[in-house]
Design goal:
By secondary structure, the chain is mainly alpha-helical. It has 5 helices and 3 strands.
Length: 139
Amino acid sequence: MNITNISSVALRNLIKLTERKESLIKQIEIIEGQLVTLISGKTVRSSAKRQGRPSKKSLQATGKKIAESSKRAPRGAIKKKILSALKAAGDAGMKVTDLSKKIGIKNANVHVWFSSTGSKIPEIKKVGKAHYRIQEKKA
């Protein structure tokens, strides 16, 4: 077979057959991996492409949109919300459940915030179980 004398139709058929052969080889590799796994009882990674959610970089490269819900709040947004709500509550303070409902953040996230970031702010005082208030600085 002389490569210079191949027609475009024959070349297209050759490409289709080669692509089909490659996909069948991938399927065979997956099946062989599954057989080895079943026989040995150990997991073996196949050379086939992994399935799952694509990374943000690959989505950006292909031009697909990332879901709006996956965007994070800007740095310090929770702190501003919690501090303003506690200031509005005054000396009585607020319980975490009420605070979380008011600012629209999960209870667990508010608890974590108080145990990590909130513990570094000296004005925030714990009044009772899951109950906090802001003690204004005395001049």
